[in-house]
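User: What would this chain look like folded?
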Amino acid sequence: MAVRNPLVAPVLGDHLSPAPAPEAILGYAFQRPELLREALTHRSAISGARLGRGRTAPSTGAGSNERLEFIGDRVLGLLIAEWLAERFPHEQEGELGPRLAHLVSQPTLAAIAETLGLPAVLAVAPGESRAGVRKLATVLADATEALIGALYLDGGLEPARTFVRRAWEDAMGTHAAPPKDAKTALQEFLLGRGMKLPVYDLISREGPPHDPTFAIAVEAAGARGEGTAGSKRVAERLAAEDLMRKLQQGFPP
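Assistant: Here's the prediction, encoded as structure tokens.
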């Protein structure tokens, strides 16, 4: 019988299966294991807490990994910027910026999370688990940043730096030249084929002023891409990446 890791809250309805120990994934022993537990707790896992007599607590996000994700996002940006400055000492901001954007992007974080085995150790609500939320790029990227935030709060920059340089080693070496921003790449792709420039449109803006969520659509060449993020700039980039994937399938080089 498989034993569920005590650092991860059990999820009803899941089949027990062997999962990597979170501390083994990170290569770090926590002084405050509650930080690790929080980093691996999706909002859905704490939003259905029972108050008694059939009542359910409203979801505030407290106890989930959202606060640690906020911290980890900033720590990751600092550590990747530091690493890029060391690795490419002759490049300026115009070249380092695209590298940084690529390395901290949602697709890169989600791919790293998959490689590390994070989907197996995330605590999510039963319904969300059955719906496959552990495989969503947004969820995996947020959890990865939350883990970095937990490492930083528990041990400072050094354990966070050690983890990032190990986990991002392959991604760091992928591009010999600075990768192009998705919006620039999309524009060049279209112009190179004599097509009209893409048109971006704000689909919706939801959430409070301090924590908005933007949904952006972009259309070109009869196709449409969409992206959702906490800023319009990032949502536009995700929409451009989505459209590029679709166009590349229909217009091979």
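Confidence is low (pLDDT under 50) at residues 1-18, 49-61. If you want, I can go into more detail on any region.
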